[in-house]
Design a protein that fits this description.
Largest sheet of chain A: 2 strands, antiparallel
Number of helices of chain A: 13
Radius of gyration of chain A: 24 Å
Distance between the termini of chain A: 99 Å
Structural class of chain A: mainly alpha
Number of strands of chain A: 2
Helix content of chain A: 40-55%
Strand order of the largest sheet of chain A: 1-2
Order of helices and strands of chain A: HHHHHHHHHEHHEHH
Largest interface: A-B, 40 and 40 residues
Oligomer: homodimer
Chain lengths: ~350, ~350
């Protein structure tokens, strides 16, 4: 009898502990979701267009063609996809892109996926919009290397098939083949390039789409303070920050050159070593890292950034967890990115 | 009565003339089809593979990835698509491709569409097979610029995602990541790249898919003697010929340099100015023309080739007809060519 009683009591105790533990886990999970929702937002389903460049199907179709249009460049060898190949998440896997006739670009090419959600383009924020980024590239000696906008426009005008496409994309305009419209069309295409991930499902519905390790990583990410800069819908991409708050970044990254960052744009002392905080969406797919692509591995990038920004030395285990969380930010490439346009012949 | 009789006779006469004319046209058309069938063949529906490289879906999948894989190159900026972008019919719209760090290739890049049907690759026929072409490119200083095959292989081995893909594509091999297998996989993908055209429908069934002008062009093409070299399923691509039989080619094309052609490969005097006869399939989409891309327009290329090969001065009208016929050789790009693979991340 006594033994039976003890067994019963033990059973009930074990059962209660199990329930308590389970609800604890659930409470923990709920708390993580609550915190995450304060800090991050799911990716919106539409990328907003500026007033003077509303998106239309005709503009997106044309923009996609121009994105792949090498004949827009002085050498005939450069297009947007040179630095932003879609097969590798619209980034090019090398420290610094190779542009006009082999010229090495000054900084690492950021992906164009989700780029239109950012507050500004490029590492130093010197391209306020997608339109501006595309437009300036037409003349950049590292990119399309046209001597003038006239030259760029004439390249497109020389291809008969483009006339009708520009008329459809910019109806009512007498001479629609302009550098501004080239940039507008390319930007309209780029605004179709967003890729939500499992993390968005988690944020939206708390669905059990993240693994335990990913959730642990999210927790460490929040605890460590990473979200001070990497927050919002893009997990970054919305502010400028000094790279190397605690220690100079180049001592940790081993950068060959010291880039002055936004200082070179504004000449304000406050802007020395200031860079745009990159979005961490698809970061696991877009090595190498930082403005100069000086770091190949994501785990090393995580270690360095905690060190130079916050003076924190993360354990191997925590680094590994954070990397797992960052993998949950990898989205699927949109179909629009994985199909190619057919371009009109040169004559 | 008399008038009625005259009217009747006139009516019968007109009717008979009409029937005779129509049957004449039809006979003419039949005769053209008969002649065309003697000289050309429709594009086969399967591109034959060599015995040591049978195509499999796993190999094609891997090969397509490697076709876009820039990390296979010394600079990280070159892939097969650098010279063979699919959006412009797998040719690159410039006289000579821009390769490793801006290096200009010695000759115009031929399209890879239908290339596996050819008897040999490249303008001088110095690449006997697709496999050989891909393999040699890995070390070419103008292309991938790897110092050794080991270097090329190690680049792929450093990307974890490729290990399983090579095992699937080359089952049973202990170390499948070899330069030979890289070339085999790329070739297997390239063997999916064929594009038949309206001309094939015409050849196969005599269907009324060619316009009168295109048929006239075909007639002029045959009458002029173009089919002496441009025949078979590829309308060329199966023989070597001297470029400039009657007059030196460079006097007509305005070529900046005199390319000795196959002579530089074999050192045989007979091979001076000898080049592979290019396939004319998709020729309207793949300007500029000739081995050095020295001629931008198809009508000018037609004029020149008739002149320097056969000493014939074609009329504007005949040139225009031939160009129309050549447009009927433009195929649709296969779906396989217009979709992009997703490549594994670097780490």
């Amino acid at each position: 009898m006594k033994i039976k009683k003890i067994l019963w009591i033990s059973f009930v105790f074990v059962l209660l502990s199990f329930i308590a533990a389970a609800s604890g886990v659930s409470q923990e999970s709920d708390e993580l979701l609550r915190q995450a929702r304060v800090v991050f937002q799911p990716l919106p389903s539409v990328m907003p267009s500026p007033k003077d460049n509303p998106s239309t199907p005709a503009k997106v179709t044309l923009g996609k063609m121009l994105f792949y249009e090498r004949r827009l460049s002085a050498s005939g060898g450069i297009s947007c996809q040179t630095c932003h190949p879609m097969s590798t998440y619209a980034a090019d896997c090398i420290p610094k892109s190779i542009g006009h006739l082999g010229k090495i670009n000054p900084r690492n090419a950021p992906t164009v996926l989700n780029a239109g959600f950012q507050f500004s383009q490029h590492w130093r924020g010197d391209r306020p919009s997608l339109e501006d980024q595309a437009d300036v590239s037409l003349l950049s000696p590292f990119a399309y290397a046209n001597v003038s906008y006239d030259e760029a426009q004439n390249r497109i005008k020389s291809i008969p098939g483009y006339w009708e496409l520009f008329q459809k994309a910019f109806p009512g305009e007498k001479e629609p083949i302009t550098h501004d419209n080239i940039a507008r069309a390319i930007s309209a295409f780029e605004r179709t390039l967003f890729s939500s991930s499992r993390f968005d499902q988690f944020l939206a519905s708390g669905e059990k789409v993240l693994t335990d390790k990913e959730k642990k990583g999210l927790n460490v990410f929040l605890d460590t303070g990473c979200a001070a800069c990497h927050n919002g819908a893009l997990v970054g991409g919305m502010t400028f920050q000094k790279f190397g708050v605690v220690t100079p970044y180049w001592k940790a990254t081993g950068s060959q050159e010291i880039d002055q960052g936004r200082f070179d744009v504004t000449k304000r002392e406050d802007d020395r070593y200031i860079f745009k905080v990159p979005s961490l969406r698809n970061v696991a797919m877009t090595a190498p890292y930082f403005h100069d692509g000086s770091v190949n591995r994501l785990d090393r990038a995580v270690k360095i950034i905690a060190e130079v920004q916050m003076g924190k030395m993360l354990s191997e285990e925590n680094i590994s967890s954070i990397v797992s969380f960052l993998v949950s930010l990898t989205g699927n490439l949109p179909e629009e990115a994985l199909t190619l346009p057919v371009l009109p012949p040169s004559q």
